[in-house]
Amino acid sequence: IQQLFFYNNRLGALTEENVSMSQTGDYLNFYHNSALTVVASDPVDIACSSIRPATLHGVIPVAQGLLLFSRSQQFLLQGANGILTPNGTTIKTISNYEMDTVNDPVDMGTTVAFISKTPSYVRVFEMQTLGQENSPVVVDISRIVPEWIPSTIDQVVGSPQNSLMSLGSTSSRDLYLFRFYSNGDRREVQSWFKWTLSGNVLHHAVDRDVFWAITKQENSYAVQKISLIQ
Q1: Is 76 strand, coil or helix?
Q2: pTM
Q3: Cβ neighbours for 134, distance < 8 A, ≥ 6 positions apart
Q4: Residues contacting residue 165 through CB under 8 Å, at least 6 positions apart
Q5: Which residues pair with 202 in a beta bridge?
Q6: Whole-number Å distance between alpha carbons of 76 and 120
Q7: What is the C-alpha separation between 149 and 194, in angstroms, rounded?
Q8: How far apart are CA 154 and CA 203, in angstroms?
Q9: Up-side HSE of residue 106: CA atoms within 13 Å toward CB?
Q10: What is the mean pLDDT of each run of 10 residues along the chain (230 residues)?
């Protein structure tokens, strides 16, 4: 099991290249009540159809369905008329971008961001899905700062309400942040910047417009609080 999630009143699990979802409302039941008839509330178990190995490790709900991520491909799981049933659920490949398997994709509100690592630096991609019949729009938002973000990144945090994404490493004091302002469908302003904290960043998160970071300085630990609305 690579990942667990809730979607459409079902508990789901990513297991290698399969998506297994429980019965509707019965989160611990992954079995059919009858072998003779299949009803809409029965469990859903479906595999990604691909010409290359696709071990799923990330999942993000979007308006069109479930966005699934593997190391080299992205898929969209969708039910007929938006309803997931054993016979009406399909998975299709929508893009073929390499992705880091350690850091999960993050929800940016109307888009999804994920990173791809090279031996020396990180690329950051932003994806906007357009439906199962259309290819998504994918933009390399780190292109304006090429080779700036190091490949040691092991933390990716997103805050849709603050239009903010942060990348950090437990071996560094630096945080690499991306912030933007959108007006409707148009992005008016976007920029990258860096914060240097007082110690190595062991963990960080955003909650209720407050940026929290746990840092380590020599043999002591500190919790830092930063207001994002000032």
Answers
A1: strand
A2: 0.85
A3: none
A4: 106, 108, 113, 124, 156, 157, 158, 159, 177, 178, 179
A5: none
A6: 31
A7: 10
A8: 10
A9: 22
A10: 89 90 87 77 84 86 87 87 82 88 89 92 90 80 92 92 92 94 84 94 93 92 90
